[in-house]
Amino acid sequence: MADHITIRPAGGTWVVRAGGAVLGESSDALELIEGDMAPVIYFPRSDIAMAFLDASDATSHCPYKGDAKYFNIVAKSGPIKDAAWTYETPSENVAQIKDYLAFYTSKVAVEQV
To answer: Which InterPro entries does this UniProt record tie to the protein (predicted)?
Structure first.
């Protein structure tokens, strides 16, 4: 793993909410800490209501994690663009986040309950 990235169990139960709806709840979330950035909670896809997520055309590349694909959230108030991302084939150093999703906390609520 890159020296500046730490991945560990997030501990407790985590929930993600968007547009007034709970998109998922997990006791198996992971916390990824990269350098001095704020920790990011990654949820197993199996704990997320994927019916509320539509694949976006957006992508990005991280030299440490690999290529990310994004999702829009389908909400009653309208789509929340590029609110979630995943590394479908993450770099070997961060393989633990395969099949996990992370969410922008500026667009949705990610909370420990």
So the answer is: DUF427 (IPR007361), DUF427_sf (IPR038694)
